[in-house]
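Worked Example 4.2. Consider the chain below.
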Amino acid sequence: MKKKLIALGLTFAMVLSMVACGAKQEAPAEAAPAAEEEAAAEEEAEEVAEEVAEEVASDVESPVAGKKIAYIMLMSSATIFQMWSDEFTKTAKALGMKADTFFCSDNADTWKTQVETCAASGYDGLMLSHGGQEYAWDFLTGILAQYPDLKIVTFDTPFKDANGDVQKIEGVTQFFQQDAGFARDLVEQLIDIDGGAHKPVRILQVQQGAGYNSPFDRRQVGYQEYLDDGSIVNVERIAPTNDQDATNSMRDVTAATLAKYKDTEDIDGIWCCYDAYAQGVYQALVEATSEIPMVSVDICNEDIQFMCEGKNWKACATTNWTSNGEFACRVLALELADQYDDIAAASCYYADPGAWLEIPSTIITQEMVMSKDGITVENLGEIAPESYTDRTWMPTCDWMDAILGPLS
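Applying the procedure from the previous section yields the following structure tokens:
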């Protein structure tokens, strides 16, 4: 195998050399501009590279080839979730698997039914996203009792029993975004806005109370650290009064709250646990011509548009949703190959509570998104810090490296 790879590499180098030489030696009657010749040569070289890559990959045996997997998302389709789905499907195809995606329109019964349907129809593995902590553990325990060969990976799906105690399901890997890290990074952004000269920093916190959902609770953990050490103080904690129309509700709640204070004389910054809430906060700030800076968790194209207006919205904490899709497929593939040790070897793995991984967070600032025209969540990597496109934290193994390429 090693000799085969070396030989292919040498062959590829020779072809590149021939392409380059051919581009220089051939002289048509009406010579094209040098730039066009160079572009044509590069295009031909890229085609050769793809052919060689396919030949190398085809020579590596994938232990999960032929498996059928699905990504089942509780929520409705959105840009970031489609980015996830696209990369999940792309990675699965590279590993020889077939992948399907199902969105469930924020309906828990639809989510459960889809899981049951896929399990009954012979899917080998399921990537399950956003299952509710009030039912996921009991429901999935029952599914695996009925289909013991099924492999399951979950995202943002806590396992708790009827008493609210954290539980585990043997063989199921759980992963989450680094929610506490989101909170810490955003608090640091607010502390640094005035060069750290003013402490404690007076923050209007936009956050639901404990127990609303697992991601928000984990974000509160990171935020609480700064309250406990005295770096920040809460001016007040606010949240939407209508969860079904959270953005507009948050605009109204923020407007009423701002009326009680003297803008930046009383409030140094606003910390938002969720960007749907943050959009309403931002609209209220603009309408009040307030100068209070704000930061938030998650990012979407509307957030980027608001940040590019150059006003209050200073930063978002997020993960790379394309990378998230690849990561999810890697974890599920390793489960299917029964290579749990390779999952545990990832730098983002936590032994406590066990089989638990967290996707690292990245800060995207207003200055970054305003530094280049046309920035969207799809091309965010063009202006984001290196941590946004870094993939070294993902799990891998020899055959996965050979097929997908080494992590970078």
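Residues 1-35, 48-57 have pLDDT under 50 and may be disordered. The first strand starts at residue 68 and ends at 73. Compare this with Example 4.1 before moving on.
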